[in-house]
Amino acid sequence: MSTRKLVSASLANLLIPISGLLISPFLSRELGPEGRGLYAALTLPIVVWGWIGTYGLQDALSYHVRQGRLSSRAAARFSLVAMVPLSVLAVGLLAVIGLLLFPEAAQYRQFLILALCAPLHVLANLFIGALTGNSDIRGLNLVKTLPALVRTGVVIVACLAFDLNAYQAGLIFGASVLAGLVFGLVRLWAAPDPPVQDAAPPKSVPTGSLIRYALACLPGVLAAVSSARLGQIVGLPLIGARELGYYAVAVSVAEIPMVIATAARSMLMGRQASGDTRAATQVARLAVLASVVACGLLAVSAGFAVPLFFGADFAPAVVPTIILCAATVLYACMTIYTAALLAYNRPAWSSAALVAGSVVGVVALLVLAPLGAIGAAVASFASYAITMIIAALGVGRVPALRSLRMLTVPYDDDIRLIKEKTAGMVGVLRRTGPPPAGPDDVSGTVETEAAAPPPASRLARIVATGRRLGVGTLGVGALIILAWLRVVSSQTMQLVTAGRPAFNSREVPSSPVGDIIGDGFTLLFLLLAAGLAVHGLRRRRPAGYPWIAVALGALLAIELAGILRGQMPGAVAAAFPLAAIAIWAQRPQVAVLGTIGVLGGLTALGSMFFAAVRPDLALLSGAAAGDKRVLLGGLLTGPYLHSNVLGLALALSVAFVFCLRRPAVRWSCLVLILGALVWTGSRTSQLAAVAVVVLYLVMRLLPGRSWPASAAVAAGALLVVVVPWITSDPESFSKRGQIWAALLERWTESPIVGWGPKVFQEPGLAADLGGQFNHGHNVMVQLLVIGGLLALVPFALLCFVAWRRSVVLAAGGQPAALLFLVAFSQVSWLEASHVATTLTGYVTWLPLVAIALATPASPPARPASPPLAAPTSPAQATTARGIARVPAAAEHVEQRAFLP
């Protein structure tokens, strides 16, 4: 139970730094380094005084409630009464401190107004102390997290909708604590008093005892605050606003693992469930181990994560972040040591350790101030180290604890507990699912899968489903994921490391890291495709040689045109031909294309998060956005180079959302994709997505009627063919008329084989097109100019075969393939970047080939046959069971599992 409480408290406390991380990128970009430093200088004294202003009463309340000497309601009344003198002291002393921190009169006036919120933070901490002593972990979690959640939502909306300054952000921060105060008061007032053994219930508030305990804790409280936040409190006059901004960002990252030690502290100071000291301190040992692991991961990822989330301007914060990650390990140990000292009535030792560490931190900060943020981080490290050492000496004097290992180093039973939990998770993954159904109980099997199983059974069913799908379906799904990772990861890394290139620029900045990542995923794709092809060909002899020739025809024609023009293909040119052979050899289920639907949802979610964190990289604005209406600061591009390209990737993913079985996943992905599509401003993609959703609803209302979707496919194909030929005005369709006319004229010079995939890199072509363009903005024009009729004819035949198969699939209850062709035909008459022969075209080539070559839908279920005669012998019974388990029935159940 204590371990569960530790996890619960840690997760709740984790919301606070997560809130800071979510807010910090918005504030950092809204305010800049200097404004971010000013915000820290305005708000941190309020936070710190929320701790100092209790004058040790927070820990005194925890101790007395823990010992049963004070009821929860009495603790609440005492806190409210104590707030009267504490509020006067808080505001008065902060006014004096503000004179030292803010030499400018305007900033000082703002600070005085914010200081009026300090009493609210003091009262919140008094409530937290009482809830801690009562071991009310749920109430404690909500009092801490409700203000963080309110603050996160209000600040993000304000940053997006208004021009926020440091003072306004500070007002939001100070007032957000009201949500936690109201809940804490209600929780304490309604809390039942736990039974007190060997003592009568308290009849009066032990005011004298509370004050004496608080005075013993007071030096430690002052020292702990200065140790934890000293660099930010006095950083403005010592290291300047810019270095303080770097240091504040480093603290916001490195303080994340502190929530584990804070949760362990709350549990150590609460009521013990048993008298077993070793069992009661297990949470401390597990907390130290978790802190070490978390700090190590943060330190390793800091070099990449800090510039990514906070912007390149905050790159100097990387080194302070690494130093503070190491310091956080010491902080975890010192927090647990001092909590144990307070729990075992050793407040003087706790105060002595914290005071000594604070003195060392102050001296180190004054000496190392010229080093800026790095010096402040080193000072914090030294402060934590001294506090930990002295607190450890005090813990050694507590007879009940016996040794420091009881608080820091896991015992064998702790390691055994971790191994058991891990083994339990692995065991769940290795299970093969529930026993099979009876011989004729096909419907019963479907009902069992539709029922809500317990979590372990659900995971086992996932594994069993993967085994039923087979190597082919899983392998093709992995190919789709690898292609998506190759596109998204390499382009994201290029944007982060080299910046966004100018629109349609030929000079794209090189990113060695992005190139390495992209080449790695390309190699994995090639190896997996080759392995699947060899495995499928060795296992069985696939039929349908004409169809694989159709699937390969357009790709090979394009590469042949390039070779004839002196454009030697690279290794990536073999990716789609190998993938086509692998699909033909493996014959996967068409439901595997649901992977594209999930990846579309992830792309939408990641792009919107990228825009929130790095709007300079993930949004197009100004001249690059053209005449389109800009939403939320720009057009959403995500990891792609243009919003239209992201729109195409999302629009072509919409149809495959309807392959997903679970409604929650299906509708979540659909909402994310449609929301991101609105933000892209890609009108062609938006119309295609709307057509897909409307036709899906029509097909649900009219089961078995696929002609509306087929008519939409035919209309889109007609537009693809006719519009470029009849458009004569060069300004038509956003100057696409000029592009089409120039490319079709170039095609007439080589109508059979075209000019190869690198024709758009020719210097003289840009003048004819009216700009630097990378594709023909129409699929027919694109294929004619790069591959001629040798590419267009097999591609058209491939689309026709895919349409014929998709009609069959739609009749079997799987409309996703036909809906994809709707989207594809609708976007292809104004765009063509989605038919690239590199892996960026995966969302077109892989679905078309998979639809044309994959296993068709299972036949409808046959009526149940009459029951067999009762067997008269064991041999007849065995024969009857063998006849009943027909493969067709099993395949039908397997297909139904993926229907929407």
TrEMBL record:
It is found in: Cell membrane. The keyword Cytoplasm does not apply. Keywords: Cell membrane, Membrane, Transmembrane, Transmembrane helix. The chain crosses the membrane at residues 38-57, 78-102, 108-133, 145-164, 170-190, 210-232, 244-265, 286-311, 317-342, 349-368, 374-396, 469-487, 516-537, 544-562, 568-585, 592-613, 640-659, 664-680, 686-702, 709-727, 779-800, 807-829, 835-854. Residues 429-452 are annotated as: Disordered. It is a multi-pass membrane protein. The keyword Membrane applies. It holds the Pfam family Wzy_C. Residues 670-795 form the O-antigen ligase-related domain. GO terms for cellular component: plasma membrane. This is Membrane protein involved in the export of O-antigen and teichoic acid. It comes from Micromonospora viridifaciens. The lineage of its organism: Bacteria, Bacillati, Actinomycetota, Actinomycetes, Micromonosporales.
